[in-house]
Amino acid sequence: MKSNGKTIIGVTLVILIIGGVWLWIKSSKTSESVSEPTNNPTPTMPPPTSESPTFINTIWTAKTIAAKPPETGTTVTVQFDNQGKVNGSDGCNTFSTGYTADGANLTIDQAMASTNKACDEIIMQQADSFTKALLTTTKYNLGDGMMVLYQGEVGGLSFIGQSNSLSKTSWNVTGYNNGKQAVISPILGTTLSITFGDDGTVSGNSGCNTYSGQYNLKGPSISIGPLASTMKACDKPQGIMEQETTYLTALQKANSWQIQGNQLSLRTTDDQLAVVAISNLVAPTP
After folding, report:
1. CB 222: neighbour CB atoms within 10 A?
2. How far is CA 55 from CA 5, 83, 160, 161, in A?
């Protein structure tokens, strides 16, 4: 009887050991399967620093949309203000809607106003993907110069931040006041640009020549000039020198400034548009 008892105890111990090994193997396999990467990985977020852009009043330019960089030549942006409004560009059209933030939780209003311009199919597909992700956002996370918008547990949109400040920004002019109460586009084949330095200098291209001078800010108010320009003469395209004079005059009449999304508006003392420009910031590839 004693021998039988020892045999039963021995068999029981063997069964317990085998069972424990089996549970350990199963647990290891389960852990490995959970850690497998998804098709849409969430970007690794560096910790924020004291100089990191803030969630509000920062121009956030898309770095990835569903784990892919934006199409070449497109700039996708969002900007949240302190009045519960968010606006930006989907790479083709500009949009505006509301948002609600509670801690790290973020909800975007479904009623979105947007322009209705048609772009190439691949850009429209990107815009659709961006908009769907934006409207299903549930929370956000800030890192050192980065922001990720999450859809559930997936970080489908990542951005790099550009402070809502003129300092150290560059812009491509899309329209300027012709002095006849109309804002017109630059002549085809010419480039008008503005760069605001962090030392109070402004410079750029006026179509034929380059220019430079000083600017001064006081809240939303701005003064620009006097401006100095190189003295090259251009004869093509037709009207380029007249455009240069008119543009530089409009620029020096600017009295206030505002950045919305990726667009800069400079207005005169009587609230007329002097110059309108878009940011030439291009999001780096991941």
Report:
1. 20
2. 71, 13, 11, 9
CA pair distance 104, 286, nearest whole angstrom: 24
Write the pLDDT tens digit of every residue in 166-217.
Answer: 888 899 999 999 999 899 999 999 999 999 998 999 999 999 999 999 999 9
* Separation between Cα atoms, residue 196 and residue 212, nearest integer Å: 10
Q: Are residues 266 and 190 in the same domain?
A: yes
Rounded to whole angstroms, how far apart are CA atoms 214 and 268? Answer: 17
pLDDT digits (tens, 9 = 90+) for 91-141: 999 999 999 999 999 999 999 999 998 999 999 999 999 999 999 999 999
Decide if 234 is inside a domain.
yes
Show the tokens assigned to 52: 């990191």
What token pair was written down for 279?
Answer: 């940011």
Which residues partner with 215 through β-bridges?
224
Is there a single domain that holds both residue 132 and residue 223?
no
Would 10 be classed as within a structural domain? Answer: no
Cα–Cα distance for residue pair 238/96, rounded to 1 Å: 38
pTM here is 0.51
pLDDT digits (tens, 9 = 90+) for 37-69: 345 555 555 555 445 678 887 888 899 999 899
Measured in whole angstroms, the distance separating CA 104 from the mean position of its chain's CA atoms is 19
Q: How many domains does the chain divide into?
A: 2
- Last residue of one domain, picked from the residues 137, 163, 189: 163
